Every structure is written in C-alpha cells, then in structure tokens.
Amino acid sequence: MRWWSDCTANWREKWSKVRSERNKARDEAKQLRSKLDSALKDANVYKREKQDLELQNEQLKKEIEKIHLLLLKHAGQFDSQIFEALGEDPLRDFTFSQNRDSPIKNCELQNGLGTDCDSTATSLLELDKDACIEEYILQGAVPRHIDYKDADRKNNDDSLTNGFDCKSERLSRKEDYDEEYIIQKLSMLQLRIEEATKTLQVEREEKMMLHRNIERLTGECQEAKEKCEELRQARQDAVRELLALQDQHQEEVQLIRADLQDEANSREGMDRRINDLRAELERLQTENAAEWGKRERLETEKLSLERENKKLRGELRDVHERLERKGRPLTNSDAELRQLQQELMDKNKEISELKHSQNKLKKMVQDKITELAHTVRRAEQYETEVKKLRNRVEELKRDLAVAEDELDTASNNIRKLQRTNDELQEQVDNFQVQLQHLHTRLRNCSSSSLFSHRGTRLTEDGSDEELNEY
Question: pLDDT tens for residues 377-435?
C-alpha cells in the first residue's frame, strides 16, 4: 500500500507543477495578447500617419512640378548655372504641410489675376514673378560655386549673358515699378521659406520618430516571436511530460489491473478452496455423525455385553455353588468349567476388542473435531481476507476513476493551451504580414521619391539642352 501512496503523491506533485506552468503560460499569453493589441493600435496610427505623409509627398511633388514649369517658362532669364544648381536643390526632398501655402502658389495666383489686367499690370506681375524666382534662388536654392567643365558650355553662357544684359537694360528702363512692394514681397517670401524649412525639419524629425517606432515595433515583434517560441517549447515540454505521465499512469493502471486479476484469481482459488473445505467439513460432519452412531451402537452393545457378563458371572457363581452342593464328579465339572471358562475368555476378548475399537473411535472423533475446528478457523480467516480484498478492489476502482477524471481534465487543459497558442501564432503572423506591408510601402515611397527626383533632373537636363540650342 505504501508504494501506491508514493506513486499517487509523485503523480499529484507532477500535476501541480504542470498546472503551475500552465498558469504561467496563460499569464504570459495574456500579456503577449495585450502587447499585440497595443502594437496593432500603434501600427494603425502609424499607417494613418504614413497615409498623411504620402498625401503630403504627392502635394510636394505637384508643387515641385509647378516650380519646374515656372522655371522652364522663365528659362530665358537664367543661365545654365541656375538649371544645373536646381538639379542639386536640397529643398526637393522636403515635404510641405497641408495647411501652409507655397510661394509658388501665390505667384500662380498673381499670374492668374494678371491676365485680366492691362499691359502695365502684366509687366508689373512679370517683374514680381521674376523677383520671386530671384528671391528663391538668393535664399539658397541655387549655389553660386559651380565650376564650368566644357568650353562649348562657356561659349553658350557668353551668348546667354549677352541676352541677359539686353534684358537688364530693358528692365532698367521700367522706373515706375514700386520698390517697396518688391521689398515687402521678398520679405513675405523669406518668411514663408523659413516656415517651410521649419515644417520640413519637423516632418523630418517625425519621419525619424516613425522609423524609430517601426524599429521598436519590429523589436517587440521579435520578442513576441521569441516568447511564442518559448511558450511553444514549454507546451511541447508539458506535452512530453504529460505523455510520460500518461505512460506511467497506464503502466500503473496495468499493474493495478494485473494485481486485480491476481487477486481475482486468488479469490477464485480461495472460493474453490472454501467450497472444498465446506464439502470436506460436510463429509467430516457426516462421518462424525456416523461415528457417533457407531459409538452409541457400540456403547449399547457394551452395555448389553456387560449385562451378559454379569449374567454369566452370576450363572458361574450359581454353577460353582451347585457344584459345591451337588459334589459331582470332577470330570464332568472340570469339563463344564473349562467350557465355561473358555466362553468367559471369549467374552472378555470381545469386550477388550470392543474397548480398544471404542478408544480408537474416540481418538478419531477427537482428531476430526480438532480438524473441524481448524477448518472453521481457516474458513473464517479466508472470509475476512476475502472481505479485505473486496474492499481493496473497491478502493482501487475509486482511485482509478479519480485518476481517469484527472487525466481527462489535464487533456482538456492541454487542448485549451494548444488553441490559445494557435490563436497567438495567428496574431503574430498577422502582425508580421502588417509589418511586411509597412516595409514594402516605405520602400515604394522611397523608390517613388527617387524616381521623381530623377524625373526632375531629366527635365532640367532637357531645359539646359534647349537653352544651349537657343
């Protein structure tokens, strides 16, 4: 019984460990689920911010295209150095905010309004546009330290400078232009450019913050993957331990069943032995009854023989008395006496044989009585052992039912853990897919910005070639 209690104690201890590990895994799964929810919310926020940035980038591309169109319209007023410098413009990679107005838009509005005015107003607006572009170049859009590489380009530049000299003479003739208006316009453009640079700096910082957040999210996703792997490993260890416990439990159940089978076989043997003992007891009881009947019969015969012996002794005494009285001759009396003595000796022998047989029967009866008492005691012992075995079988059946219930609960808990782990794995996979979409969108955005940058450079090269031909 002690080994069974030790086995159940070890089994309960192992199940308590498995239950504690399961609770820990469940808590970690809840924490990971909360982290995944927060990460998904952050990813949605970043997605919205990214869409806003994409819209702002598209607006910026449109504004840059308008700037290049304006520059192409006024290409006769600048030399080839300006267009080469516009290819290296640092403001091209920046994004303007949605609520701010660009100076080029103001110039376009002024250009649209100037179509309805007279020729003097159109000349003033042309001068205003020229001043806007010159202010844009003076604020740092075009560097002045470009080296000339080709001799042909120098010749073309000389021709263009001659054209610019003519135009400057033509512009100097227009003395009615309001210089204060130009100064105010230049200051406004300066303020707008400063605001645009500030917004560009802020948006660049926001972009860096977004990249940091994406890196942090990727790190958290990696940690979630590692924790998921740890949970999977712990689940596999728990499953292996559970399988080992199930195997051990099955072995114990098989041992218990073998013990029960042995006990059932021993009980059947005991029942057969008890039945044999009962049959033998009944046989001994019948033999005892027969012996008692024989003993009573022998006692009755003994009593009858004793009565006959007494009667013969009385007759013998009577004969002796008669012989003494009659005084018969000795021959007849001796013969009769010998005959009577012979009969008496035969009777005595029979009586001694009967006594000897009676003593033997008494001994046999005493032995049978003691043997019967022993068999009765053995039968009682066997009955008590059978009762104990039946109680033990009932206890083993109850323990087996409890063990099967606990095994069912453990298997149900393992199925629940497996389902929760599968759900967590699906969430992690979805999160990975979202991160991959974010990375692909960022790559597409960067590639589109590079393509737009190259397109603007190609347009500038084309404008340079047209100017050279001109």
Answer: 888 888 888 888 888 888 888 888 888 888 888 878 888 888 887 888 888 888 888 88
- Where in the chain do CATH 1.10.287 domains reside? 268-406
**C-alpha dihedral, 448 to 453 to 455 to 456, nearest 10°:** 140
| pTM across the whole model | 0.28
| Cα-based distances in Å from 54 to 43, 98, 261, 457 | 16, 11, 80, 22
Domain formed by 268-406, architecture: Orthogonal Bundle (1.10)
Closest by alpha carbon to 32, among 410, 372, 421, 404?
421
Task: Say how far apart CA 419 and CA 286 lie, in whole Å.
Answer: 75
